[in-house]
Each structure stands twice: as structure tokens, then as C-alpha cells.
Amino acid sequence: xxxxxxxxxxSWILLVLFGQLxxxxxxxxxxxxxxxxxxxxxxxxxxxxxxxxxIRYNKETRFFKxxxxxxxxxxxxxxxxxxxxxxxxxETSMSNLTARLSLSASGHQLTLEQEKDELLSWIHExxxxxxxxxxxxxxxxxxxxxxxxxxxxxxxxxxxxQQLHQKRLPSMENDLYIEHMDLETITYAExxxxxxxxxxxxxxxxxxxxxxxxxxxxxWLAFILRQLITNAVKYSESHSSDIVVRSxxxxxxxxLEVQDYGRGIDxxxxxxxxxxxxxxxxxxxxxxxxxxGLYLAKKAAEAMxxxxxxxxxxxxxxxxxxxxxxxxxxxxxxxx
Length: 336
What we know:
Layout: H1 2-8, H2 10-29, H3 35-69, H4 85-103, H5 109-138, H6 143-168, E1 178-182, H7 183-193, H8 195-201, E2 205-209, E3 213-217, H9 218-234, E4 243-250, E5 253-260, H10 293-303, E6 307-313, E7 317-323, H11 327-332
Parallel strand pairs: 2-4
Antiparallel strand pairs: 1-3, 4-5, 5-7, 6-7
Helix pairs in contact: 2-3, 4-5, 4-6, 5-6, 7-9, 9-10
């Protein structure tokens, strides 16, 4: 991690060192400038700069060191980005299948269901070579190439996971398993997925968990958190304030907030952000957004009786709030 940090800051480290050497050279060549006092000043400023680097290193990597100490399962998902050939194939297949579903008669339903199952099976099979690819990437010594490949690998893996949950959503009620779970553990696992991306952008996390135990479905709750945290990282400026994830209890209900200090959402867009396919009217040229992440997250939350709210201001940031149902309401979801 130290080498990655130094490479990320190499340009301005070299700039400072070049300035110090230039100052020494001028003092050495110009006999009217006393050399020893200048050497002493350079020594002091270089020492202060080294201390500054150490402090910033600890601050910017403290959270990710904590992640390395926790055992987490790498379960990746969505960060819908600019369209790639792979994404085009998947989206075309899904669009064709949806069109056929809407136009087919009841007699063709079985065939279409089989095609759906085959597509889901194909998605699972693609994950196997992607896992092998990640292991190969981790062995690379070139940190710059490693970071670039990891980011592209993450985009594909997240896209696959989104498509998988999109196909499962209509039959989600058959897939729910309500149980006690640890919010902190799930959140750490999702953040660890985005670790390399966050380090690249110089973004950390501030986790404040007053309440950690909730009744919900682990797989679908992780999917919802994935969308919110991924969006928070995506729309935060590099080296901006930490993303805050907090939980608390109020009026016998548990709340979970994901707050970023990024570009924010225009007030005229707020009523539509959960609509299928809606991206933005303010940043309409943002081709990285597909408008599916928040739509799917909202649908999944409604199925689990989780209320999802959002507050945002342009240039200030965005806060998503999940309000969990009371225990008796959560247990009734699956008839427990």
C-alpha cells in the first residue's frame, strides 16, 4: 500500500524535491547567498514535508488497513459504467428476452422461462473466468496497470451482478430469507469490494454504527447497500470528504444512512431518480449512468418493507436513508 500511495503522489513529491534542489543549486552558485543557512532551511522544510507525507498516508489509508484486518467475502456487483462490448451483448440479450416476453402467448411461456434460466446460468458461468482473471491481476507488479485492470474488471463484475438481480427481482418473494444480521459486517464487505477504486480517488469512509443488528435478507440488503455506496463513490470528487455510513434507532425503528459530499442531485430530478432508466437532466451527457441501480434498489427495498428516502443539494452532497421495518413486520414478509 505504501508503494501505491507514493506512486499516486509521485508528481508533487518530485515537484517539492526539485524545488529544494533548485534552491540549493542557486545558493551554491551565487556567492552572495550564504549556503549553510539555505541548507539548514532546506533540511527543515524537507523534514516537515516528510512528516506531512506520513500523516497524510495514515489518514488516507487508515480505513483500508482496517478492511485488510477483517475477513470479508468478495461478492461484487453494480457500478454501471460506459458501455463496453461485453455490456452490449448482455443488454441486447436482456432486451430481446423482455420484448419476447411481452409479445409471447401463454403457449410460449415455458420456452421463455427456459431461456431465462439459460441466461442466468450463463451469467454464473462467466463469473468463473472473471474470478480467475482477478487472481491474475492481483499478481501483477505494475501498480498502475494493476489499478487500471482492477477498475475495468470491477465494472464487468458489477454489471453481471446487476443483471443477475434484475432477473431475480420478479420472483424475489420466493428468494427472501429474513434473519438477524450484522449491518457493520455487510457494510465492510461491500466497501472492501470498492477498495482499489476508493484508494485511487483518495476517498475514505467514516462508519458510525449505534445499531448493528437488524432483521432482513442478507443477500438483497447487501445488493441495496452496494448501489448506494457505489453511487456515493462514483459521484464524489477525488480527495473529497469521507463518505459517512451511520445507523441509529429512532421511534423503535432502525435507520441506516449513506451520506456523500459529491456533486448532489438537482431538486427537479429528485422525484424521478427511482424511475426505471432515468439518469439526470442536469448531467445529461453522463454516459456512465444507466438509471437501473436505484430503480432495482428501490424495488428490492419495497419488497422487504424498507423505506428508502433521499435528501440532496447540488454541490453539497446526497444522503440516502433506509428505514427498516419493526421486527414483527419483517417476520411477516416470509410468513415466519
